[in-house]
Amino acid sequence: MKITVNYQSGHRQSFIVPRNMLALDFRKRAEEVGGKIENIEFSLSKNQVGFYSSEIKESILHPD
């Protein structure tokens, strides 16, 4: 899955993330790369739409 992370610094980074990676693990790695996260955008291909709705169970949002 392709995920684009927008950082509070204004920097933007795209990642290719394996299906089995936990959202919390991804968030930690993304923060190590670029710092505090402003928001996260998911890019799903047509064959991934069913995966998104049925298998992502952990929220990416971080309560501040």
Strand and helix map with partners:
Blueprint: E1 2-7, E2 12-16, H1 23-34, E3 37-43, H2 49-55
Antiparallel strand pairs: 1-2, 1-3
Shape: globular
Derived structural class: alpha+beta
Give the amount of beta strand, in percent. 25-35%
Uncertain residue ranges: none
Helix content: 25-40%
- Output the helix-strand order: EEHEH
Reported for the largest beta sheet, the result is: 3 strands, antiparallel
Total number of helices: 2
Computed CA radius of gyration, to the nearest angstrom: 12 Å
Count the strands?
A: 3
Mean pLDDT: 80
Distance between the termini: 26 Å
- Strand line-up in the sheet with most strands: 2-1-3
Which oligomeric form is depicted? single chain
Description:
This protein has 64 residues and is of the alpha+beta class. It is built from 2 helices and 3 strands. A 3-stranded antiparallel beta sheet has the order 2-1-3. The radius of gyration is 12 Å and the shape is globular.
Any descriptors?
64 residues, alpha+beta, three-stranded antiparallel β-sheet, 30% helix, 28% strand, globular
Offer a quick outline of the entry:
The chain has 64 residues and is an alpha+beta fold. The protein has two helices and three strands, in the order E-E-H-E-H.
